[in-house]
Structures are given as structure tokens and as C-alpha cells.
Amino acid sequence: MCGVDIAHHAVEVAAKRKPARFFKQGDLHDPNPFAQKFDLILAINIIEHLSNPVAGIESIKNAAKPGAIVLVHMPTISNWLTRWEYAKLYDSDPTHIYRPSGKTVRKLFEAKGFETLRDSYLPHFPAFLTKIWPIHPAYLAVFKRNS
């Protein structure tokens, strides 16, 4: 297991909890700090912090082996109700600089050569049903890197 976080403190905590693993401080826009590419990448609550999400997704692609799975989780705005909920929960966080819908994130990953295996709004709600019943603004997607 390898991990990268922009916060030095988060890297220190992870290293203490899992001393046999490899953790480094870094930015998603930096080159992959590890010598290998990965079969599985978790991008949990990262995309909304990126000033250049296209470059960030390209970095994820460069760190992933062909056929790798990428799991993305993020708060999102998909309709008027989630816009209100997002504002209530996240507007006070100045690091949330990118506020896409799940559909936008899916299109960005697909444009970079990823296949969408599944996407939904949490709690495990099929994305297409949010047009009928708007719910909590969390988006979860599983992508596969094509070659």
C-alpha cells in the first residue's frame, strides 16, 4: 500500500498507523512519487480541491496501470437540493474550489480514457434516479483505465 497526501500531518499519522506501508507528502499535480504504477487508486475527497481537475485526472491516469481501477468519492452539486446542502456543509471550506456535478466528473474521466464501471450518489443511489429524487451531495464512481 502506498499513499500520498498534501498535508504533512496526514502523512505522519498514516505512517504511524501503518509503519510497513509507504506514505509521501505530495500534490496530485506532481509526478507519481513512487517507482511503480498501481492496480487500484482511491481518490477520496480530492477532486473538489483541484484548481486544474483535468491535469489531476491525467496524473491519476499516469499513476495507473492499464486496466487499473480508480475509485472516486467527492461531494457534488447535481441539482437545487444538493446545491443547498453543499452550501450548508462545504461553503465554509475555502479549499473546495471545484464544484462539479457527478456527470461532469464522469465525462472528464471518460475523456481521459477511463471507462465508467459504476457511478452513483450516496447512499448507493443510481445516478440517473437523482433526476427524480434529489438526495445527499456525495458522488461515488468506479472507473477502469483503458490502455
TrEMBL record:
Gene3D superfamilies assigned to the protein according to its UniProt record, in alphabetical order: Vaccinia Virus protein VP39
This protein's name: Unannotated protein
Species, as recorded: freshwater metagenome
